[in-house]
Amino acid sequence: MVYKKFYISITESDDIRRTDYEGNEISCEGFNFEVYPKENRTQKIDEFSAAVGFEILEKSLPEAEQFVKDHIDLEGAELKGFISETSESDSPSQVNGLTM
Questions:
Q1: Is position 1 within any domain?
Q2: Is 71 domain-assigned?
């Protein structure tokens, strides 16, 4: 999936760990997400998950896609800042003022 120039991998999961209201760790169904700045997906800039009954209401692709869009809308400025940093690292690196 591509959203606002980010490339996102969405993977179903049956073992997302959450803590229930009684303090017990439980295993939930849901989705794992990985966010990349480039189509080749070589450098991951974010990863997170959404569990049914916690962050999402049901295990459906439309629900997962909406969740990731909301996440990127909220975290977009921070992610774009990270893209700027990684773009600079694609150019020759500098160590103590010396170009390597």
A1: yes
A2: no
Give me the domain span that covers residue 33: 1-17+25-57
Supply the mean pLDDT for the chain: 83
Look at 27 and 74; give whichever has higher pLDDT: 27
Distances (CA, A) of 87 to 8, 56, 84, 94: 18, 33, 5, 13
Going from the C-alpha of 91 to that of each of 37, 67, 87, 94, 99, the distances in angstroms are 16, 34, 7, 9, 10
Number of domain units in the chain: 1
Write out pLDDT tens, residues 29-66.
999 999 998 888 888 999 999 999 999 999 999 999 99
By DSSP bridging, strand 46-51 and strand 25-36 are antiparallel
How far apart are the C-alpha atoms of 78 and 42, rounded to whole Å? 19
